């Protein structure tokens, strides 16, 4: 029986070996499985069924089709320029905002740095200036900069200013410059003031203790007193001053003004200038004749903002009763006649609008209507902010109103509601910051120069 069982097993094994060799099963077992052949994927050109793209998605696709990667503007020089270099080849130059202080975390620009580009938009000076202004007078123009912040500079650096021509051919730094579009530019070196013209040529030497601000050919300057410091005289008797012409010659005076008065308030406009006697003021002409009697009381707010007569020949005046101290404000013409009688308890002038109590007038003294949206009797204070925006204080709240559009907002940030975080006009262009970009906009709103904003920390006149 055992022999029979062994024979059967041997026969079965022989059969299996012959069968697998003939069928090639051994090769099928040990060869790797071949990769399947894939048909090419076909992307449908139309979405099946009734599905359609939403308008929002189509708008996003259209933006993607026109998207161009941001690229920094070219540099005129091979390396970064941290001081302005003059050239005959720039053509017209333009400032741009290229850096913001590190506290730009809430969308508000508190401090920025400005640089310059040439007429092709190439950077000729990296951001080193704390502010830039374009000053114009009778067809001439220059840039005035305030604060020159250089990497590694000590605190004195940020107190400087500079004057540079709009073609970049002239540039000179000073300890201080005065802006305001006067006939000439007052500049200071150390403790003394001088005067230059819009081409950078010296008009008067640096020998004055105050800034000579020329208007209608004359400027008020402190009068020198032999053996007496002007400040000592000022503290005891008031400010002694006279008027000089552009040759430095004394042509009017001497006069005395209260020691609390700034000489910048004494410039001529419409042929008239403020004249004081015993703390009351009137107006004199260039012949030293008293044209409007000295009957008005000094008020720093009214005089500063009224600033004598404006270009249209109007001036805010103030009269105060010595005993009751009750004040009244009005508006006069250059001949002394009243346009607005002395009947308001407060007044101001911003250069664009007069405000008398709760009444608003433009620079032509024409009444302007402002819709308060509430009872006018509840208005406690009105302030012109900028452009056409006013702040109106009521007894229970404050609102911001646009005098042209009638828009009203609870806070000024909402009133601005701009797509830019910073926006300011300079000449025909606009400084702008949007998100993390800055630069200069063309008059049509397109970018003339656009840069990725630098960040800096400003501490006592230098940047990190």
Describe the structure.
The chain is mainly beta. Helices cover 13% and strands 40% of the residues. Strands 6-5-4-3-2-1-32 form a 7-stranded mixed sheet, with no helix packed on it. The chain starts with a helix and ends with a strand.
Summarize the structure.
The chain is mainly β and 464 residues long.
Task: Output the radius of gyration.
Answer: 38 Å
Distance between the termini: 104 Å
Derived from helix and strand composition plus strand pairing, the structural class reads mainly beta
Q: State the helix count.
A: 6
β-sheet strand percentage: 35-45%
Task: State the main characteristics.
mainly beta, single chain, 464 residues, four-stranded antiparallel β-sheet
Write the topology of this structure.
Elements: H1 2-23, H2 25-30, H3 55-66, E1 94-101, E2 112-117, E3 123-137, E4 140-148, E5 161-165, E6 171-174, E7 176-177, E8 185-189, E9 192-196, E10 202-208, E11 219-222, H4 230-237, E12 239-244, E13 250-257, E14 273-277, E15 280-284, E16 290-297, H5 300-306, E17 314-320, E18 327-333, E19 338-344, E20 347-349, E21 353-356, E22 359-362, E23 367-368, E24 379-386, E25 389-394, E26 398-402, E27 408-409, H6 412-416, E28 422-426, E29 429-434, E30 437-441, E31 447-452, E32 454-456, E33 458-459, E34 462-463
Parallel strand pairs: 1-32
Antiparallel strand pairs: 1-2, 2-3, 3-4, 4-5, 5-6, 7-8, 8-9, 9-10, 11-12, 12-13, 14-15, 15-16, 17-18, 18-19, 20-21, 21-22, 22-23, 24-25, 25-26, 26-27, 28-29, 29-30, 30-31, 33-34
